[in-house]
């Protein structure tokens, strides 16, 4: 199929793996979260860049999180890893922009996935609310985001039409964070 021209870093682990305050946080969970959410995108980006640089064309898109901009109660490892991946995105964008390669991030809010279901159950118990109530108030639009709502932006960022867009972190969060 030839060299990789588009990399989408979309693997990760969420805060639902073991949510707890920093003072009680499991160091192994911390290390695992940073390895998967931050080190893996770094290594994958580093691996595909030589071919992209040789071709003077490429797209790197990383799925970060709104938690990489605002933090997360009882989710320090997740938030720290997503803050870190935004720093990686911006630094890498500066390094390769003049070579025809764009590097951007997508920052979803709460997405209706099995992983987020677990986090919502944890937060509902912690806050003394129902899961349904949390779902209804998760975002300004009154629901969680669907995975399908993230796809159009990823497709745009992968296209030639996005050649002037680099170093950006786009929110798809239903109005949870408006910056």
Net shape: globular
CATH superfamily, by name, is NAD(P)-binding Rossmann-like Domain
The first-level CATH class is given as Alpha Beta
Query: Number of domains in the coordinates?
Result: 1
Are there runs of 5+ residues with pLDDT below 50, and where?
none
Gyration radius from CA atoms, angstroms:
17 Å
* Quaternary organisation of the protein chains: single chain
Measured as a percent range, the helix fraction is: 40-55%
Topology:
Layout: E1 6-9, H1 27-55, E2 58-63, H2 67-70, H3 76-96, E3 101-108, H4 114-127, H5 131-136, H6 151-158, E4 169-172
Parallel strand pairs: 1-2, 2-3, 3-4
Helix pairs in contact: 1-3
Structural write-up:
There is one protein chain. The chain has 179 residues and is α/β, with parallel strands linked by helices. It has a single domain (6-109, 147-172), classed as NAD(P)-binding Rossmann-like Domain (Rossmann fold, 3-Layer(aba) Sandwich). The protein is 46% helix and 12% strand. The protein contains six helices and four strands; from the N terminus they run E-H-E-H-H-E-H-H-H-E. Helix 1 (27-55) runs parallel beside helix 3 (76-96). The longest helix has 29 residues, at 27-55. The relative contact order is 0.17. The model has no long low-confidence stretch (mean pLDDT 95).
């Amino acid at each position: 199929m030839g060299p990789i021209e588009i990399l989408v870093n979309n693997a990760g682990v969420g805060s639902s793996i073991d949510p707890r305050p920093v003072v009680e946080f499991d160091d192994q969970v911390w290390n695992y979260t940073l390895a998967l959410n931050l080190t893996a995108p770094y290594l994958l980006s580093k691996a595909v860049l030589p071919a992209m640089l040789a071709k003077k064309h490429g797209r790197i898109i990383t799925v970060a999180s709104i938690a990489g901009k605002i933090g997360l109660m009882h989710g320090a490892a997740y938030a720290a890893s997503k803050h870190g991946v935004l720093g990686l995105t911006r630094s890498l964008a500066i390094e390769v922009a003049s070579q025809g390669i764009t590097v951007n991030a997508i920052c979803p809010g709460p997405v209706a996935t099995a992983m987020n279901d677990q986090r919502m159950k944890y937060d509902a118990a912690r806050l003394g609310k129902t899961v349904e109530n949390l779902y209804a108030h998760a975002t300004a639009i009154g629901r969680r985001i669907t995975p399908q709502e993230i796809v159009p932006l990823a497709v745009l960022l992968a296209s030639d039409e996005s050649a002037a867009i680099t170093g950006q972190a786009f929110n798809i969060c239903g109005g949870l964070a408006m910056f």
